[in-house]
Write a sequence for this structure.
């Protein structure tokens, strides 16, 4: 039973990260459409921010393993 | 194109000259010229292939044009995809074969486990029934954890190569503290197999590629022939059921201790009866990558020294853009005036992480999960943390402990948060790299595990065949993503370290600009 609750928690963490990465990607597309000449800078910052958000989800994954007690 | 054409004409002459030399019956020259011919043939083919691509050479580099050419010339792609699918289904079959071997060995050790045990082992017999039911069930998470962990053998494909062992045991269980230094070939494991040793040495055994220690102090020292290994769920100190490994000898099952880990029991570790300081798979991979990088950079440095001001050649072309990118996009904007002081450190960080990330991606070559090891990322983050603390100037510490221009009651709230932040920054650095790489490796193992889940551990051939094709495609997809992650994580780690260093060494701004 513990395992399944940990999995639900991980799923919630992934929802948050999904919203975050989606927003970052969408806004980056908007920005590129508005200023195509700045595509390099925007892409670099997009990847960096996405990696930061993804880190939160991965810590969620880690905590799910932790409470699962494997 | 014109330039290339000239080159080929010259090559053609060369080949004709070499051909005449063949009659001199010098074998070496025959080899040389045949390899040149093959080379020439391949290059010609490549040129023909390039001509079939869209006219504008710049367009070849975009994904859309590659996709377009795939649609335009589908027969080639379909052939290649078919070859890959066949390869992976064949791979799946061999894995299924291994799965069957696993089940068989489980049966083989059963009598040893259920044999009427003596005194302390009586409880083992009662647990055997549940154990035998559980053995057929495939446990993907345990398999994943086993495959991402460090090992005491190096495995290239199914072949195991022994590595040196350096083990230390504290004076526990009636024994004095002692060091044991030997090669893991002492465990007499199979050269092709899963890394289970047939022998115990000074109570140490090799199980699934990892050194473990027999808990029972009455077990004889020296080299002892074992009859196999078994697993059972037993309650741990907290009363939770955990998987424990047993070594079978003389009809008894002896419980095994895992090596001590410094992760504070994160993955069921903690301090046990022995410490493993061996040169394991991870350490070997790390050394290999360091040697490779050292060799590469020394060569490149020599090339720059010997022909200054000339266009880069060979591997310089690969490294130079990365170094310039790191200098212009990471070091200069994030650190500022003092970037030159920290640039070597940032470069080392980036190439070390990237090299190990990519090295772990090579299929059938150990697949070592070095940057996905908490100790490795911990040391990397610790170095970054120490550098930040040492180089932090007065301005930096002032802004953490007692920020100027902020009301006193805000300072009381903010100061603890800022002090915590000093430690949380390297902690997230450590966890981000670890979690990203580990998650990638584990996802790959779980995709391969689909074969066993659908194949019911070798009982359903149809299920495993279907799943092996599916998991092969999923694995290719995942490996492509992991290739991206390898670069992104190396970049992110370097960039964040640079930004922390930049914050620590930033000079005092003029008033009003920044607080």
């Amino acid at each position: 039973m513990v395992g399944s609750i940990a999995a639900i928690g991980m799923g919630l963490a992934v929802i948050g990260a999904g919203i975050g990465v989606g927003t970052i990607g969408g806004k980056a597309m908007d920005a590129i459409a508005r200023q195509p000449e700045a595509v390099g800078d925007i892409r670099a910052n997009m990847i960096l921010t996405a990696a930061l958000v993804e880190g939160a989800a991965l810590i969620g994954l880690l905590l799910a393993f932790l409470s699962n007690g494997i | 194109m014109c330039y290339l054409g000239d080159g080929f004409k010259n090559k053609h002459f060369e080949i004709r000259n070499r051909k005449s030399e063949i009659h001199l019956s010098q074998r070496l020259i025959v080899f040389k010229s045949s390899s040149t011919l093959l080379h020439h043939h391949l290059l010609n083919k490549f040129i023909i292939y390039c001509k079939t691509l869209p006219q504008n050479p710049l367009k070849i580099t975009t994904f859309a044009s590659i996709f377009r050419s795939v649609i335009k010339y589908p027969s080639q792609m379909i052939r290649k995809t078919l070859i890959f699918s066949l390869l992976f289904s064949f791979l799946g079959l061999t894995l299924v074969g291994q799965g069957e071997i696993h089940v068989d060995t489980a049966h083989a050790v059963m009598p040893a486990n259920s044999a009427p045990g003596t005194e302390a082992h009586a409880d083992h017999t009662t647990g055997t029934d549940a154990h035998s039911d559980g053995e057929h069930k495939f446990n993907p998470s345990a398999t994943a954890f086993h495959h991402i962990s460090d090992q005491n053998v190096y495995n290239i494909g199914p072949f195991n190569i022994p590595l040196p062992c350096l083990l230390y045991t504290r004076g526990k269980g009636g024994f004095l503290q002692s060091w044991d230094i030997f090669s893991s070939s002492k465990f007499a494991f199979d050269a092709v197999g899963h890394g289970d040793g047939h022998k115990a040495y000074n109570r140490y055994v090799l199980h699934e590629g990892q050194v473990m220690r027999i808990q029972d102090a009455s077990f004889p020292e020296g080299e002892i022939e074992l009859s196999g290994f078994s697993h059972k769920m037993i309650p741990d100190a907290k009363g939770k059921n955990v998987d424990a490994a047993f070594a079978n000898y003389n009809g008894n099952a002896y419980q095994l201790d895992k090596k001590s880990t410094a992760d504070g029991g994160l993955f069921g570790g903690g301090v046990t009866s022995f410490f493993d300081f061996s040169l394991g798979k991870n350490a070997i991979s790390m050394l290999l990558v360091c040697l490779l990088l050292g060799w590469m950079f020394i060569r490149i440095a020599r090339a720059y020294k010997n022909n200054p001001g000339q266009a880069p050649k060979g591997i310089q072309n690969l490294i130079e853009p990365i170094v310039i990118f790191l200098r212009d996009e990471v070091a200069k904007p994030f650190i500022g005036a003092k970037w030159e002081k920290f640039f070597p450190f940032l470069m080392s960080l980036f190439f070390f992480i990237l090299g190990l990330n990519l090295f772990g991606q090579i299929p059938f070559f150990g697949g070592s999960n070095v940057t996905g090891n908490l100790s490795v990322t911990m040391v990397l983050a610790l170095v970054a943390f120490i550098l930040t603390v040492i180089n932090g100037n007065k301005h930096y510490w002032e802004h953490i402990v007692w920020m100027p221009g902020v009301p006193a009651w805000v300072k009381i709230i903010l100061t603890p948060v800022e002090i915590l932040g000093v430690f949380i920054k390297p902690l997230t650095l450590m966890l981000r790299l670890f979690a990203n790489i580990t998650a990638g490796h584990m996802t790959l193992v779980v995709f391969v595990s689909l074969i066993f889940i659908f194949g019911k551990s070798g009982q359903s051939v149809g299920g495993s065949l279907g799943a092996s094709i599916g998991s092969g495609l999923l694995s290719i997809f995942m490996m492509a993503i992991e290739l991206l992650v390898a670069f992104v994580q190396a970049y992110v780690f370097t960039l964040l370290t640079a930004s922390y260093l930049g914050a620590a060494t930033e000079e005092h701004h003029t008033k009003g600009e920044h607080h």
Summary: Chain A has a mean pLDDT of 82. Chain A is about 90% helix and 0% strand.
